[in-house]
């Protein structure tokens, strides 16, 4: 990382985060959110990691609005953002850093951070309840049900889709109370691009490399995959399946299960337990 980049397509607020990181002697940690969230969903994680001596960045997907209010005012801004486009955006941000960062991602962000690591751009990687990398074969019924609001209509590939509260409860908060589900939905949920779900769902039936990772790449760096045992959106078949593929890598590859946690595990009241597992791994390897 040389700290020099043209920042094509990178927002001014993201450039400011890079400059803040470069002004610090601390190791940078880049957080990558998934579908139906904004970068602000990482605020608690950022404080925890900075309290432990890291400097953090939470860039958005291309054109991400800064607030939930803005997201609902112009939901079409999310449409058409595919996995590789988003990966390239994060790589553009990362290329401006003077130090190779740790990358932490959730859901499709968990897939994207593995693609970032595959580019040799990560000092260490944590993927949390990740969307499956290409070659992971099981597609559990719970994941199909969670993705059905998007996958039910091929036209959704080009649209931005919001979940209803009931759909959110099943796919994200199936282990939570009604009150906590409502709080999370009203605080964090935003529309999301439809195309990544189609790319992941049909990855093993197409020649597309959007979800592909070279699991033998010696430049990948250490990787931890964290799995919530009650996740219906990214069930164990996705996370452990990705882990088994990644074990072919010569670098350290580890897997941690967090009991009784659903897809909301990075934003619900139990997030500190998950963040602590990620932090301890990062401390050992970066």
TrEMBL record:
It comes from the Bacteria. One of its GO terms (molecular function) is hydrolase activity. Residues 29-277 form the AB hydrolase-1 domain. Coiled coil: none annotated. The keyword Lipoprotein does not apply. Keywords: Hydrolase. This is Alpha/beta hydrolase.
